[in-house]
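Structural prep section.
Before we set up the soaks we want a predicted structure of the protein with adenosine monophosphate in place, mainly to decide which crystallisation condition to try first. Input record follows.
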Amino acid sequence: MKVLVLGAGQLARMMALAGIPLNLNIKAYDVASKQVVDPLNLAVTYGDLASGINEADVITAEFEHISHDVLALCQASGKLKPSSTAIKTGGDRRLEKILLESHNVANAKHHIVATRQDFDQALTKLSLPIIFKSALEGYDGKGQWRMKDASQADGVWQEMAEFLAQAKPENPQAIVAEQMVQFDREVSMVGVRKADGSTLAYPLTENHHSNGVLSVSLALASDNALQAQAADIFDKVAGGLDYVGVLAIEFFQVGEQLLVNEIAPRVHNSGHWTQQGADVCQFENHLRSVCDLPLGSTALIRPSAMINVLGTDTVPTDILSLPSVSMHWYGKSKRPGRKMGHINVSGASNEQLYQRLIELARLLPAEDFPDVLPYISAKQQ
Ligand code: AMP
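Run finished without errors. Recording the tokens verbatim:
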């Protein structure tokens, strides 16, 4: 089968790698150059979007911020999975909130802001501190403002008003004001749904962020009620979108309750550990779902973790001498903070995983991985 992925980044690349053993032919649409490319060698081009749509049996996406005209063309072909509605919902925090509310899924208290009047209402309805997030095009902590003190109101509104004024009239922007949650930790669930409504979910993953960007994901062996709670929410959200493919849900854990932070209608950075912690990784299961093939097991076969490589294109090669460590580079040119690759590591038990993580973290230069060793050391205690 021929699959066209909208977006030509590392997620399309890892889908292409996962698709090779299944004889799936993966091409990617690069939204910047407007060309269909080989996701493993972006210099090899195949033509424009229209011919890409025509050639493909199935079209899917690696990111949610895709222009609506591209989505409309793909949807009209009848080949797009998940649907353009599902992709747009993941790309617009307003639609996400409507979806969550309509399925009674717990999330942070919020208010939509487009005008100063809305802003003042948000300040009345929510208590400080408040986080303001752009409805469109916000990810990895971008397009966000935080307000701790009422005296900041005019300054914060001024910045947001300028931001709102830059939006194109055909794509009206808004801000979602959200009560800051005093969470215990951040976790995510990556799951997969087929067109027949069947679902499977990977184990809940603990995520450690640094400056709003994912740094480490930990998938440990545990059998707690949180997994069932997350899987139930996954079924509501994925079912509500009539979703096909892999979908990720990020949560704040407060005590024993999960509040949804956001949903990502695609394979997700917090699911990269599945490349060696599960029999079938998220990339392959996404392809199996959109190609209507049987799904593979999402069970944890060994506790695993992932460390993101941000802004650097080298790590000591010695890390490869550690047991169960694998390196995944994305072949991208270096930019500060850019996701360049990731490192996976596994252990036979949670304890062994922690030991290996500590050994690995000690080999990683502190200037490129400043928070990794402190985070893992604190977890191990
Ligand atoms: P987001 O882009 O929504 O994932 O936000 C980036 C990061 O900001 C999250 O991973 C959290 O660490 C933090 N954050 C976002 N929303 C909230 C909230 N309502 N309460 C507390 N922290 C938040």
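Observations: The CA atoms of residues 9 and 39 lie 7 Å apart.
Flagged for discussion at group meeting.
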